[in-house]
Design a protein that fits this description.
This is H(+)-exporting diphosphatase. One of its GO terms (cellular component) is endomembrane system. This protein has helices at 8-34, 56-66, 71-115, 138-177, 182-219, 223-266, 279-314, 317-320, 324-327, 329-351, 360-386, 404-429, 434-441, 447-460, 463-493, 496-518, 523-565, 576-617, 630-644, 646-702, 706-711, 717-761, 764-768; strands at residues 125-126, 134-135, 390-395, 398-403. By secondary structure, the chain is an all-alpha fold. α7 packs antiparallel against α16 (496-518) and α16 (496-518) runs antiparallel to α17 (523-565). The longest helix is centred in the C-terminal third of the chain and has 57 residues, at 646-702. It starts with 7 loop residues before the first helix and ends with a helix.
Length: 769
């Protein structure tokens, strides 16, 4: 079999050092962003004009045009930024109080269920995969699974919170930089996104690595037990992400729909107009939904794919022969990924300079391409030095011989499938291509045709991503069984730092545009921030594509690990136990989507009523002489999202427990397969439909081409039809779609954690009858 070229000590140094470099790099980026000042006292432009009275007037006009000279603008930006930051922080604290209660309750549940597998006995047991050896008791797995669950949950919450803090710190700075040109604003927004991306990737890696090493002190040689208990880390990460995504998604879309319907359609005022009472809530929502929710979501995917790979590896030759370097191969890939993303980020901020609006989107796409190409070489090097030339992988009861180059191909196929999904998503959601332009064109005949075209586009956009996922599943499974699928998912997520940077850039630019509008900056500055925002919309869709694609692979890998742990040899679809699970599992994403969509609808209804009330009852609001009551709208969004996030969360968290306890592991395996198959399709089509409607509206508003100008301007009938499409698409692309990928992962990882309990005590109904 041979040993890996990289010694164990090398691995133990490499992983934490890469994580620390990632954290260091994010701090450097944060420092560079913080150099942009949001206080006018230090604004040097104020003193320039007094010195040259000769042609001071002309200078003054030029300065005013650029908006540099205005004291009040900077003050206003700072004030709006504070309002957004306070709103986001107070919402997250409220959300975390509720989630904290759930976290403690669920931790107790994990301990009780897993401890009861052997009746809370503390004596060592024969190992499940090698009865000749003794392993640690089930009680130890219960204790350590609970600890790793709490660690994963806390890391996920911290990741989301830090991301939100960075975004609210950077939004006004991006607006102020836009006065100097689109390039400066782009760099500020992108750097802020990079802070979040690197912090999250490095934190997730570091906490997981430290946890493994601390657990190893107790577990010693029992690697199977050690990595079984690590699975709690993925469960913690994803369960927090579910509440973050659903709660944040309901918050942001209730505000967005309310602001759009009354402001744009009824009152005919621009987006982000300060007279609109829901405008602060809308901007807060971008941060809690798209930033905090997205951060927790991708952290969850990353934690779960690592856990799935480690569980399968622990019962393969890596774990049996105690080969540490090969065992930690998934973490080594993530470490190299951080270094690759670091180099890639420097290309965007320091190598290529953006001078014109049309260069923004290509610059972001270059990030994806550069990181993928560099990462391919990175994976090749890691596979060569960190793996033995040949080894065995556990494959449903047998050991399959695998070569290191085959494992390299598994990771690479996942990585490139991610890029393909990203680009297909971009094709269907960017207004530079015909699909979105066709949707925009359909607005000529009203909102109904716009909705029909948009839905058709979403369904059609599923085809290529599903083929990409199918090919990567086939290739990776053929080479390295379930371990191959787990590392393919890791391959897709290996460039997570760059993916998140691009993704967080979108909401930051969106907020920057909102601040420019509210602070009354010139039309030219709003045009620049709009251009940044339009590119950000497309990249957000690319980010969602990545999240959904990786979720499909991750949940399949977790499904494989679950089947191994629950000791099921085959899952036969033709047996009634499995088939009933399959058909019910396929229904769950619809039930879940219905809950989240209705939640957004009912919250938006309250918001619309409140915004209308303020316009009708506050004198001088439309004239701009009095300020609206922003706080009431923020409160409506907060209350609605906290109340409404509980039922969908309960549906996802309780389904595996109920099915496992009453119907047993075979039915549960059917439920997992069904929810995976239908969830992926709905998630992709919902995200892309919503993204296309949004960009069709922006295409008409920008009026950049002859075709777009025939549909505009703002306020025309086609534009109103586009706004209605965009409003329908909002909950699809930002609430239901992105939350579904958490549904499929979370049910799989939860089943994996509770697998020993279900295998021992599950299937009560079938035992009775």
């Amino acid at each position: 079999m041979g040993a890996a070229l990289l010694p164990d000590l090398g691995t133990e140094i490499l992983i934490p050092i890469c994580a620390v470099i990632g954290i260091g790099f994010s701090l450097v980026q944060w420092f560079l962003v913080s150099k942009v000042k949001v206080s006018p006292a230090r604004d040097s432009h104020n003193n320039n004009n007094n010195n040259n009275n000769k042609n001071g007037y002309a200078d003054y006009l030029i300065e005013e045009e650029e908006g540099l000279n205005d004291h009040n603008v900077v003050l206003k930006c700072a004030e709006i930024q504070n309002a957004i930051s306070e709103g986001a922080t107070s919402f997250l604290f409220t959300e975390y109080q509720y989630v904290g209660v759930f976290m403690v309750a669920f931790a107790i549940l994990i301990f009780v269920f897993l401890g009861s597998v052997e009746g809370f006995s503390t004596s060592s047991q024969p190992c499940s995969f090698d009865p000749s050896k003794l392993c640690k008791p089930a009680l130890a797995t219960a204790v350590f699974s609970t600890i790793s669950f709490l660690l994963g949950a806390i890391t996920s919450v911290v990741s989301g919170f830090l991301g939100m803090k960075i975004a609210t710190y950077a939004n006004a700075r991006t607006t102020l930089e836009a006065r100097k040109g689109v390039g400066k604003a782009f760099i500020t927004a992108f750097r802020s996104g990079a802070v979040m991306g690197f912090l999250l990737a490095a934190n997730g890696l570091l906490v997981l690595y430290i946890t493994i090493n601390l657990f190893k002190i107790y577990y010693g040689e029992d690697w199977g037990g050690l990595f079984e208990s690590i699975t709690g880390y993925g469960l913690g990460g994803s369960s927090m992400a579910l509440f973050g995504r659903v709660g944040g998604g309901i918050y942001t879309k209730a505000a967005d729909v309310g602001a759009d319907l009354v402001g744009k359609v009824e009152r005919n005022i621009p987006e982000d107009d300060p007279r609109n009472p829901a405008v602060i809530a809308d901007n807060v929502g971008d941060n809690v939904g798209d930033i905090a929710g997205m951060g927790s979501d991708l952290f969850g995917s990353y934690a779960e794919s690592s856990c799935a790979a480690l569980v399968v590896a622990s019962i393969s030759s890596f774990g049996i022969n105690h080969e540490l370097t090969a065992m930690l191969y998934p973490l080594t890939i993530s470490s190299v990924g951080i270094l690759v993303c670091l180099i890639t980020t420097l290309f965007a901020t320091d190598v290529f300079e953006i001078k014109a609006v049309k260069e923004i989107e290509p610059a972001l796409k270059k990030q994806l391409i550069i990181s993928t190409v560099l990462m391919t070489f990175g994976i090749a090097i890691v596979s060569w030095i960190a793996l033995p030339s040949s080894f065995t992988i556990f494959n449903f009861g047998t050991q399959k011989v695998v070569k290191n180059w085959q494992l390299f191909l598994c990771v690479a196929v996942g990585l490139w499938a991610g890029l393909i999904i990203g680009f297909v998503t971009e094709y269907y959601t960017s207004n530079a291509y015909s699909p979105v332009q066709d949707v925009a064109d359909s607005c000529r005949t009203g909102a109904a045709t716009n909705v029909i075209f948009g839905l058709a586009l979403g369904y059609k956009s599923v085809i290529i991503p599903i083929f990409a996922i199918a090919v990567s599943i086939f290739v990776s499974f053929s080479f390295a069984a379930m371990y191959g699928i787990a590392v393919a998912a890791l391959g897709m997520l290996s460039t997570i730092a760059t993916g998140l940077a691009i993704d967080a850039y979108g909401p930051i630019s969106d907020n920057a545009g909102g601040i420019a509008e509210m602070a009354g900056m010139s039309h030219r500055i709003r045009e620049r921030t709009d251009a940044l925002d339009a590119a950000g919309n497309t990249t957000a869709a690319i980010g969602k594509g990545f999240a959904i694609g990786s979720a499909a692979l991750v949940s399949l890998a977790l499904f494989g690990a679950f089947v191994s742990r629950a000791s099921i040899s085959t899952v036969d679809v033709l047996t009634p136990k499995v088939f009933i699970g399959l058909i019910v599992g396929a229904m769950l994403p619809y039930w879940f989507s219905a809950m989240t969509m209705k939640s957004v609808g009912s919250a938006a209804l309250k918001m619309v009523e409140e915004v209308r009330r303020q316009f009708n009852t506050i004198p001088g609001l439309m004239e701009g002489t009095t300020k609206p009551d922003y706080a009431t709208c923020v409160k409506i969004s907060t209350d609605a999202s906290i109340k409404e996030m509980i039922p969908p969360g309960a549906l996802v968290m309780l389904t595996p427990l109920i099915v496992g306890i009453f119907f047993g592991v075979e039915t549960l395996s059917g439920v997992l397969a069904g929810s995976l198959v239908s969830g992926v399709q709905i998630a992709i089509s919902a995200s892309n439909t919503g993204g296309a409607w949004d960009n069709a509206k922006k295409y008409i508003e920008a009026g950049a081409s002859e075709h777009a100008r025939t549909l505009g301007p703002k306020g025309s009938d086609p534009h109103k039809a586009a706004v209605i499409g965009d409003t329908i698409g909002d909950p699809l692309k930002d609430t239901s779609g992105p939350s579904l990928n958490i549904l499929i992962k979370l049910m799989a990882v939860e089943s994996l954690v509770f697998a020993p309990f279900f295998a021992t005590h599950g299937g009560l109904l079938f035992k009775i009858f």
